[in-house]
Amino acid sequence: MKNSLLVLFILTLLSCSDDNGLTTNETNMSETEAENENPSVEEETILPEVTNVGFDFSATDIEGWELLWEDNFDTDLSEWNVWKGGAFNEELQLYQEENLYVEDGYLFIEQLREAASGATNPFDTTTKSFNFTSGRIESKELYNPSLQGTLRIAARIKLPTGEGLWPAFWSYGDPWPTQGEIDIMEFRGGRTNEYVTNFFYGTQANTPLTNSAVTSYTHDAGLDLTNEFHVFDMVWSQNSLEVSLDGVEIRTFTTGEFQYIDDLFNKNEKVVLNMAVGGAFFNGMNINVSDIPNKSYLIVDWVKIYKQ
Fold this sequence. Notes:
This protein is mainly beta.
């Protein structure tokens, strides 16, 4: 009887062991340890290949201008502050650092359709859910033409195409709009031949005195602006804001035509590059969220600021 029980006990042990003589529990522990030693690697983001065609400044275009600051995106974003959180204007994206890439001398701002959560905006830390992510950077340096001289703020940009995309190149100061806002370029990805330029000013926080119905100007370039790089720039002086595309003036806001231009002259503003998704910029256009691209890129070759 004892011998029978001993045989049965041995057979039971063998049935709980693997081919290496380890018990089931020992096998599971070994597999877990192996997984910990070889963690899965996150999928690498493959950035779009850049064809460097399109307008660029020549020596003639900047003759008489002294370079004050530039970023050719050769290294990192140490010259910029990264916006983290949602934004305003009914926008749909969460801004995060993970959507910003500096590679091969370009800044890539990536827009993604993905579920994410984060602060409602940098001033409201309430957690909010988002269906898109993107990126936004703001220069650490502030610019003021009354201190630095007439300024020329320019960027060489390749715009994305797609419904609901809202890339922009602009400047502003806090608290908005007491330091003003100058929209050098605001683009709707579904209207690839045109972009908007505008300005804001007010003496109290969150209360503009300007009227966008009057100040906003839409420029029809007569060509698809997403096919290649273009240079968007603005000359900021005491009595005017002169906006140009590829070195050609498209609109000048002057004190003779508009109030508050001269009020902007002694204000401190930071330069901004961002890609918003949806929002009030599309009011009345019946944008279908399902038509917004799953992925797109705003590509920036350089940002340069000159003085005169």
